[in-house]
Each structure stands twice: as C-alpha cells, then as structure tokens.
C-alpha cells in the first residue's frame, strides 16, 4: 500500500481522509501491524486507483501476474499522469504561455516520436 501511495505522491493523511479512515490506521496497515477489512481495503484501493487484490500482492507477485514489462508500463503511465499535472499547473500559473505540441502514445503507452 505504501508503495502505491508514494508513487501517487499522496501523504498518509490524504489517503486517510479520502478513504474515510484514520491516519494512525494507515500507518499501522503500512507497517503490517493491522490488516484492513474488505470494506476498508476497497476504500483504500479506490483512493489509490487500484483493484483491491493489488494491495495484497508483493512486487514480485505483480510482475509475475502482469508479465515482465509491467513495471515499465506502470512507469510510463505515471510519467504521462505527472506530465499532465505539471502542464496543468504551469498553464494555471501562466495562462498566456504558448501550449506545447500534443504528445502521442501507442496502444502500449509508449510515446511516439516525430509527431
């Protein structure tokens, strides 16, 4: 759970608030001292934009389940998501700044060059 939370750049407090649980509970789950009920697991997964079973899997399980390219595909998705958020932030800060050309991706999420 901590791995996904950090990848999304949210704090324990933000996760707790959005999932309707306490910050202390988030910490206890991340340290392995507590295990969430199915309802809490679903709430946490919703906030992290995951299917609940993903929170029960270790890194090696995820790689095995998704194939060897899973880590790279996830990294590409995160890069796109962060890039969009940065563009939005910059555009809000300076609305007169010229917009960059659009970025295109193939069906596998890889950036297409030369467009």
Helix content: 55-70%
- Overall pLDDT: 81
Distance from N terminus to C terminus (CA atoms, Å) equals 37 Å
Protein structure class: mainly alpha
Ranges where pLDDT stays below 50 over 5 or more residues in a row are none
Contiguous helical run count? 6
Number of strands: 0
Radius of gyration: 17 Å
Strand content: under 5%
Overall shape: it is: flat
Order of helices and strands: HHHHHH
Reported for the largest beta sheet, the result is: none
Tell me the domain tally: 2
In short:
The protein has 115 residues and is mainly alpha-helical. The protein is built from six helices and no strands.
Description:
The protein is mainly alpha-helical and about 120 residues long. The protein has six helices and no strands. The protein has helices at about 1-10, 10-20, 25-30, 40-45, 60-65, 70-95. The protein is flat. The N and C termini lie far apart (about 35 Å).
Layout of helices and strands:
Blueprint: H1 2-8, H2 12-19, H3 23-30, H4 38-47, H5 59-66, H6 70-93
Helix pairs in contact: 2-3, 2-4
Descriptive keywords:
115 residues; mainly alpha; 434 Repressor (Amino-terminal Domain); flat
